[in-house]
Write a structure and sequence with these properties.
The structure holds 2 protein chains of 2 kinds. Chain A is mostly helical. Chain A folds into 2 domains: about 40 residues, no CATH class; about 230 residues, MetI-like fold. Chain A has 13 helices and no strands. Chain B has 2 domains: about 35 residues, no CATH class; about 200 residues, MetI-like (MetI-like fold, Orthogonal Bundle). In chain B, helix 8 runs antiparallel to helix 11. The N terminus and C terminus of chain B are likely disordered. Classes of the chains: A mainly alpha, B mainly alpha. Chains A and B meet through helix 2, helix 4, helix 5, helix 6 and helix 9 of A and helix 1, helix 4, helix 5, helix 6 and helix 7 of B.
Chain lengths: ~290, ~280
């Protein structure tokens, strides 16, 4: 490689190779993100205003933020615990073996691909005529909707969300489980430790940052997820992404489109905080994976 | 399926016993299979009255199926086109940039990684708020054809494609390879074409497959920008013919599973090769 600064003209030309990517990212990532955040500060006519941002603190909208929080937190905790359990079950299996390949692929499909189709799956399972609904009703005389139909409400989102959170946990947490070194277990055994001391004194402290990091990633994933909720809940806006849909689609209500900007800003603030925590924890994890 | 092989007794206290392992995998696997089984069962239902029929599956091959499901087939065409253009964007814009940064601007690696991970922090539903005005310009310049949506999808797949290519770049000593071929008199073109691309084949394939899977599953941006793709059409069809919607969902899930299984196989053959050499 040429020495830096030796041929400035040529160095400048070298940077030209980076321009397509830079222009692309500017046009379709930087500008849209900036626009999404900035429109919240303007009225329809282009005047600067705080009213949209203040609008976030409207009790109704705060309520949707609260619902989103609740849904994301509960599905993240359950997803993280069940996912970690699955990772534990796969310790000691060959990474390139059939079991792991199938679990990995299935996890990727469910975590990144589901969306609308997961809504169909759960309507077929616990919808009014769903397989499980009907089975419970006919065999046990149990009506899961005795207290009203909840599948098309926020509580109904919980099961589909867990269904894509667990696979995401498997994908993100398995590398950390793999990072547990055999020598640590050997050292523990040599020093007279039991299975219990191995997990409480060695494995859990090593895995903790990664576990909580993955938990945050799961939270972010649920918080930003739109497709499943949009497919299940066609009317109303019980969580923030659906509120954005409402603001974008209802062009008849004046000034609502800029409300979408304010909501987007609110979501980004939450996402940045959560992802910052994730990367901080991820750095701690990396220490053990060398 | 061949059973997992323990690393031997060395994993004292770490690995679960075989019984515990299979109980956990069995129970969770069974619970996760229920919604898929429910979907399959649903496609054979004769209607609210009960009973089973093959009509919903055979109906797909009817003479007038092409007409009845025209919108759905158009949407599948759209999604496939979007997948192709998105993979094109990954190959033409992201891949050369990643190689260039890896070889020439090692100090920019962190910056590139940061940029490529941003789409995880900026959810699609947020991005679409800003994409709406951008697309009103795009439509004016390039027309309203479906394929333009791929510009947005190129951003959506960025984290996945980046990770796939980067892990390949890290495992191959690209710098040494390219310096060796340069000193043997190869032009930059033949270095890229005959040395780098063959070595990065696996990462490129994995990036392409994961991009295809993500694009085929994408709903948020298409739906909020009022475009028609596989997922928006499925949701629309589900209101008139839920059976067909579920059948196509099953097929799409199976296709994505097959694509990702292939990525897994690609990865494992490489691992085998590197341990044997």
């Amino acid at each position: 490689m040429s020495a830096p600064g030796a041929r400035p003209r040529k160095n400048l030309a070298r940077y030209l190779g980076l321009t397509p990517f830079a222009v692309y990212v500017l046009l379709f990532l930087a500008i849209p993100t900036t626009l999404a955040v900035v429109t919240g500060f303007f009225t329809e006519d282009g005047d600067f205003t705080f009213s949209n941002v203040v609008g976030i603190f409207d009790p109704v909208i705060l309520g949707t933020f609260f619902s989103s929080f609740w849904l994301s937190a509960v599905s993240a905790v359950i997803g993280a615990v069940v996912g970690a359990l699955l990772c534990f079950a796969m310790i000691g299996t060959r990474a390139e073996g059939a079991l792991r390949t199938v679990v990995d692929s299935a996890s990727s499909v469910l975590a990144q691909f589901g969306g609308v189709m997961l809504a169909f799956a759960f309507i077929a399972t616990i919808g009014n005529q769903g397989l499980i609904t009907v089975a419970l009703r006919d065999i046990f005389g149990l009506d899961i909707f005795a207290n009203g139909q909840w599948l098309y409400q926020v509580p109904g989102l919980l099961l589909p969300y867990i269904y894509f959170q667990v696979p995401l946990m498997v994908i993100t947490f398995m590398p950390a489980m793999e990072g547990l070194k055999i020598q640590w277990a050997e050292a523990n055994a040599t020093l007279g430790g039991s299975r219990w001391t191995y997990w409480t004194r060695i494995a859990f402290p090593v895995l903790a940052p990664s576990f909580f990091g993955s938990l945050l990633l799961l939270f972010a994933n649920a918080f930003s997820s739109y497709a499943t909720a949009a497919a299940l809940i066609s009317q109303g806006a019980q969580i923030v992404p659906l509120q954005i849909r409402g603001a974008l689609v209802s062009e008849t209500v004046l000034g609502r489109e800029n409300m979408a900007g304010a909501l987007a800003l609110g979501m980004i603030v939450v996402m940045v905080v959560v992802m910052w925590g994730y990367s901080a924890l991820q750095k701690r994890t990396a220490r053990w994976q060398r | 399926m061949s059973g997992p092989v323990n690393d031997g007794p060395a994993r004292i206290g770490a690995a679960p016993s075989n019984i515990v392992r299979w109980v956990i995998l069995g129970v969770v696997g069974l619970i996760f299979a229920i919604p898929i089984i429910s979907m399959i069962e649903f496609t054979f239902r004769a209607g609210l009255a009960g009973g089973y029929t093959l009509d919903h599956w055979t109906g797909l091959f009817d003479e007038d199926a092409a007409r009845t499901y025209r919108n759905l087939f158009t949407a599948i065409g759209n999604s496939l086109l979007l997948a192709v253009v998105t993979v094109g964007i990954v190959l033409v814009i992201l891949l050369p940039t990643m190689i260039l940064v890896h070889l020439q601007f090692p100090r920019l690696r962190r910056v590139l990684e940061f940029i490529c991970i941003i789409p995880i922090t900026v959810p699609a539903v947020v991005l679409v708020v800003g994409l709406a005005p951008v697309y009103s310009v795009v439509v004016r310049l390039l027309g309203g054809s479906v394929w333009t949506l791929a510009f947005a999808y190129g951003i959506t797949v960025l984290p996945y494609a980046y990770r796939a290519i980067q892990s390949n770049l890290d495992s191959v000593d690209v710098v040494t390879l390219s310096e060796a071929s340069r000193s043997l008199g190869a032009s930059w073109f033949s270095v890229s074409w005959r040395v780098l691309l063959p070595n990065l084949r696996r990462g490129i394939l994995a990036a392409a497959f994961i991009s295809v899977a993500v694009v085929l599953g994408e709903f948020t941006i298409a739906s909020l920008l009022n475009r028609v793709n596989l997922q928006t059409a499925l949701l629309q069809v589900s209101q008139s013919d839920p059976y067909v919607a579920v059948i196509f969902s099953l097929l799409a899930l199976a296709l994505a599973f097959a694509l990702l299984l292939l990525i897994g196989r690609l990865g494992s053959t490489d691992r085998n090769r590197s341990t044997s050499s």
